[in-house]
Amino acid sequence: MSNIPNIDLNLLKLFAVLYETGSVTQTARVLHMSQSACSHALTRLRERLNDELFVRVNNKMLATDYAHRLADEVLPALKVISQGLKESKEFDPADKHQFTIAATDYTAWCLKPFLSYLLKKFSNISVQIIQLEQRLPIQALKELQLDIVCGFAHKQEKSESLAQLNWFEGEYVTLSCQHMSPNLSLTINTFLERSHVLIAPWNESRGIVDKTLAQQKKARRVILSTPHMLSAPICVQNTDWLLTMPAKYAEEIAPRLKLTIHPPPLKIPNYHVKLYWYRTRQHDPKLQWFIEQFRRFHTLS
Q1: CA separation for the pair 119, 128 (Å, rounded)
Q2: Using one digit for the tens of pLDDT, what is the confidence trace for 86-100?
Q3: Looking at the DSSP assignment, which residues form a beta bridge with residue 271?
Q4: Which CATH fold topology does 97-168+272-300 show?
Q5: What is the DSSP letter of 123?
Q6: Do domains 9-86 and 97-168+272-300 have the same CATH topology?
Q7: Which whole number is the average pLDDT over 130-139?
Q8: Where are the domains of the chain?
Q9: Which positions fall inside the HTH lysR-type domain (predicted)?
Q10: pLDDT score for 84
Q11: Is residue 13 a contact partner of residue 31, using CB atoms and an 8 Å limit?
Q12: Per CATH, domain 172-269 is 3.40.190.10
C-alpha cells in the first residue's frame, strides 16, 4: 500500500464527474459544491498531476490525451470503490436499481417468466440483458460491467473466481421438417447422411453433438451454423436438414413450425443452465437479494 500515490480521493471523484459531464457547472451541481470550489479543486488536481486535464472549447471542457488515459484506469477503480461502499448498505428494492445480465437468446428466453414476475412486483427494478458473447465473461464480471451471467455447461465445473447456482438440467432432441420427411425414422445412419444446422452461440466450429460423435470416430455434415437458437428451427422448415437443440424450446416451437421431434440416435450429455457471478460479490446485498428472489420464484412455481 505504501506505493499508492498520496492524492485526495475527492479530487478523483471530481475528475470522474467532469470527464462524464464536460461541464464545471454540472460537476459542481452533481457534487453539491459551489462552482468556485469546483474550479479551485480542479486547479489542485491539475497541479497534482502536472497536466491541464481539461481544455475549454466552445463552452465545453474537453479531456486531454492524458485525461483519457487516466480515465481508463480511474473510472473502473472508482466504480469498484463505489460498489464496495454500497455493499455495506442494506438493499432496498424500493430504490431504483438496474441489474445487468449476460445471456444467450435461449437462456434469456428461459429467464423470461422470472423477469416478468420480478419487474411486475418491483416497479423500481430494471434489467438490462446483454448478449453473452463468450461462455464465461469473467473479466466483465470482475470489473462490474455485469452483475450475473445466465449460461450453460455440459459438465460440472469449478472456478476460483466465480460462484454459481445450478438452475436446471435439460436434454436435447432433434428436429426435422414434417413436410420434407413425413415418415422419417431417425437412425444413426440417417442422422449421419443428412445435413445439419449447428447452433454456435460463440461462433464455435463444433458443438456438443460433434464432440460426442468424435468420441465414436464419427462426424456429421454441418451445412449451416447460426448463433441464434431461437430462430434456428425456422432454418429447418421446408428442408431435409436436421437440427439438434434443447427439448425445452423445441417442444414449444415445433408444433408452430410443423417440425417433428425425434430422440437423437446417440447419447448426448445433458446441459446445465446456471447463474454465475463474481465471488468477491458473494455477500453483495444487491446480488443476494436477486438470487433470493430467483430461488423463491422457482420454489413456488
Answers
A1: 12
A2: 655 678 999 999 999
A3: 170
A4: D-Maltodextrin-Binding Protein; domain 2 (3.40.190)
A5: T
A6: no
A7: 83
A8: 9-86, 97-168+272-300, 172-269
A9: 7-64
A10: 65
A11: yes
A12: yes
